[in-house]
Amino acid sequence: MKRTEIAKLLKPIETGMEVFIQGWVRTKRGNKQVAFIAVNDGSIIHNIQVVADAVAFEEVLKKVTTGACIGVSGKLVESLGQGQHVEIQAHTIEVYGTADADTYPLQKKGHSLEFLREIAHLRPRTNTFGAVLRVRHALAFAIHKYFNDHGFYYLHTPIITGSDAEGAGAMFRVTTLDAGNPPRKEDGHVDFSQDFFGKETSLTVSGQLEGELGALALGRIYTFGPTFRAENSNTPRHLAEFWMIEPEMAFYDIHDNMDLAEDFLKYLIGYALDHCADDLAFLSQMYDKELLNTLEMIRSVQFERLAYTEAIDILEKSGHTFEFPVHWGTDLQSEHERYLVEKHVGRPVILTDYPRDIKAFYMKQNDDGKTVRAMDVLFPRIGEIIGGSQREENYDALLNRIHEMGIPEKDVWWYLDTRRFGTAPHSGFGLGFERLVQFVTGMTNIRDVIPFPRTPQNAEF
Ligand code: 4AD
Ligand code: MG
């Protein structure tokens, strides 16, 4: 018989027919006559209850313990018990895999998220991670859908890169040289010309620069891939390996860019609300009673748009004591971002026109000679969720900035070429996928929204 997903059986459905399910046992209880087995197959947060004759199934029931994997065929009937409207009266039970009650780590409910991080290989079997991973999937799908519906092309930018132009932080080296005995040049430095690619290469910190090349040919593109940063930041919002969505649009100025970012985020949050109701209800109940209200609020409010200089003024006049002092020219810390969003404005904020010295070389320079056309979207709880800008499309201005910042021209000649041949005004941004998932699920630590988090000292699984 063909397997039916539990999600399908729990929808309003006719009863009385024979069904077949396969999944993992969450709990088993009962008495001498009858056993009640709660089975989950990952298709939905809810379990289905299997009712089995304890005498007829006596032998097999010994192996039906929490964590075991089973297949059950039986009759789908209306349930008289509380908490479910249908259940299965078992006709056959097959055990595919037992789970020893003394050693299975998820024996009981209510493990801490910290403990579950230590068993990341098993935590997808908990309600919380099932919910988070289904929401994560829905958001990834919605991202592709949004862009496809809006005429963007999905561009695959490289993961191994020979340029460090972004300056977004330390990079992970990619090499096949013998770490213990690398070839050396006369001056003693490692000779990377003998390395696999004939030069130094790393894992990318962003697909943007290559994304721009695509936008200046296809009009509107987006990348959605893994990015890597070797910063030693042990915070609830940083991963060493995270996924980033980077749209890049020819002929967009910073205002078009902000409009897109706002519409995009609202669409994604709305998509999750409309398609992940059960999982979000569960997460809300477990972790943040205000979650659904917050998500509804973001979907319907207008984001506040504020220049960096105004924001500094607000922060300086706030009378609030920050851990990191703030004045014009400093980069904002998440405490400052959250103050603006949560205390001052009460809705998401798009902050623009940052000092050029704290932003990347490619951002379009304003006429004041001090600021650039940057835009960061700041969210409650998360702080920065999006970073982006209008790009400097003027060849001379860009080259100047490259020289000023000491970026070797030989590393970015191909990028400069786009400004020499048919340059165009253009803009783009990067959305941190895990920060989005964090926001939508209400999880407070970013390590709990990616299946296998990579952080300093941690790449076990
Ligand atoms: O602000 P960032 O560094 O911007 C860029 O990389 C640009 N190239 C994007 C662009 O314009 N195409 O990173 C973008 C976003 C941040 O706003 C944040 O949400 C996320 O990526 N992010 C991280 N997420 C998890 N862990 C980290 N270590 C992150 N660093 C950035
Ligand atoms: Mg940023």
Name the descriptors.
5-stranded mixed β-barrel; 16 strands; binds magnesium ion; elongated; 13 helices
Q: Looking at the chains present, what oligomeric state does this protein adopt?
A: single chain
State the end-to-end CA separation: 35 Å
List the uncertain runs. Answer: none
Radius of gyration: 27 Å
Largest sheet composition: 8 strands, mixed
Helix content: 25-40%
Number of helices: 13
Mean pLDDT level = 96
The structural class is: alpha+beta
Strand content: 15-25%
Which small molecules are bound?
4-amino-1,4-dioxobutan-2-aminium adenosine-5'-monophosphate, magnesium ion
Q: Give the strand tally.
A: 16
What overall form do the CA principal axes indicate? elongated
Question: Could you state the order of secondary-structure elements as H and E?
Answer: HEEEHEEHHEEEEHEEHHHEHHEEEHHEH
Taking strands numbered 1, 2, ... along the chain, how are they ordered across the largest sheet? 6-10-11-16-15-14-13-12
Structural description of this entry:
Helix 4 packs across helix 6. Strand 4 and strand 5 form a beta hairpin. It is elongated and about 85 Å long. It is of the alpha+beta class and 461 residues long. 32% of the residues lie in helices and 24% in strands. The strands form three sheets. Strands 6-10-11-16-15-14-13-12 form an eight-stranded mixed β-sheet, with helices on both faces. A five-stranded mixed barrel has the order 1-2-3-5-4. The mean pLDDT is 96. Magnesium ion binds next to strand 15.
SSE layout and pairing:
Elements: H1 6-9, E1 18-30, E2 34-40, E3 48-53, H2 58-63, E4 69-78, E5 86-97, H3 113-118, H4 127-149, E6 153-154, E7 160-161, E8 173-174, E9 201-203, H5 208-218, E10 220-228, E11 241-250, H6 254-275, H7 277-287, H8 291-300, E12 304-307, H9 308-317, H10 334-345, E13 349-355, E14 371-379, E15 383-390, H11 395-404, H12 409-420, E16 426-432, H13 433-441
Parallel strand pairs: 3-5, 6-10, 12-13
Antiparallel strand pairs: 1-2, 1-4, 2-3, 4-5, 7-9, 8-9, 10-11, 11-16, 13-14, 14-15, 15-16
The chain binds 4-amino-1,4-dioxobutan-2-aminium adenosine-5'-monophosphate and magnesium ion.
